[in-house]
Amino acid sequence: MKARGAEQGKRKRLPVYSRRLREAREARGISQRNLGIEAGLDEFVASTRVNRYETGVHQPDLQTLQKLAAALGCPLAYFYAEEDELAELILDFARQRPVR
Q: What's the 3-state SS for 42-78?
């Protein structure tokens, strides 16, 4: 029987953009498919693509992540914030800015 710590050590740690994407999508209460469609992805592959971004299988290019961020109402910097506290500060700052 393997030690639990050894198993967890073997698991691939998710990239920060993957974790943030899932957090933002779930906070908004939107499905992977609907998020993809709102971001301009083809409706037939939207769910699969967003799922692969969230699981770290694929990394979205900058333009795609910008579209996902806009669909979620989050600043792009949020998806690259390593620290949870910094990510929250980025969201708070963005909420306080006047809409242009």
A: CCCCHHHHHHHHHCCCCCCCHHHHHHHHHHHCCCHHH
